[in-house]
Write a structure and sequence with these properties.
This protein is of the alpha/beta class and about 190 residues long. Helix content is about 30%, strand content about 20%. It has a seven-stranded mixed β-sheet with strand order 1-3-4-2-5-6-7, with helices on both faces.
Length: about 190
């Protein structure tokens, strides 16, 4: 797949606005401030296709990017405290409505900051994907912030936070350094070929 062909298509703020699923969908999910926009830009080989913000919690809609053969879904970041409870609830409803809808989801990339232990919301996301039998992978971001030795320790700690982790791909990544980006692209490519 030529990731440089990916274009922004649309944004949706309510579940009712979501159009039917017409192509295979690759989903990017994670907490606010996990580096989702930066990782997506690195995967797509673009600097500013996906809007990255210095302020966490800026993605408040489901943003859709696509090519002729696939769509890439940028879910709102979850878990950011500095918004109203009603806004957090709207995001949660939007994410849940997307995941329970009859979508052509071929892969969900769950992004976790390699330096942080998974939160209850992270575990809830993974449990939700397992319950719905949706294929997923863990992408551990911001790996450039710690040493390789620390990375190995953090991988073990993070994976032990989840049950049912056998056969789940885990990729260590850094959008800043390009670490793991080719592995993420390969995973996406493989999911689209199945």
């Amino acid at each position: 797949m030529d990731f440089s062909d990916v274009q922004y298509l649309a944004s949706y703020g309510t579940p009712q606005q979501l159009p039917p699923s017409m192509q295979p969908e690759i989903v990017f999910a994670g907490r606010s401030n996990v580096g989702k926009s930066s990782l997506m830009n690195a995967v797509f080989g673009r600097k500013k296709l996906v809007k990255a913000s210095a302020t966490p919690g800026k993605t408040t809609t489901i943003n859709v990017f696509g090519t002729k053969t696939a769509q890439f879904i940028d879910l709102p970041g979850y878990g950011y405290a500095r918004v109203s409870e009603s806004e957090r609830e709207r995001w949660r409803t939007l994410i849940e409505a997307y995941l329970v809808d009859d979508r052509s989801i071929v892969l969900t990339l769950v992004l976790l900051d390699i330096r942080r232990d998974p939160s209850d919301l992270d575990r809830s996301m993974v449990t939700s994907l397992i319950d719905r039998e949706l294929p997923f992978a863990l992408i551990l971001t911001k790996a450039d912030k710690i040493s390789r030795q620390q990375q190995q320790q953090r991988i073990r700690t993070i994976c032990s936070s989840f049950s049912h982790m056998q056969d789940v791909p885990v990729i260590v990544s850094s959008a800043a350094k390009g670490t793991g980006i080719d592995d993420v692209r390969a995973l996406i490519g493989a999911s689209l070929r199945h």
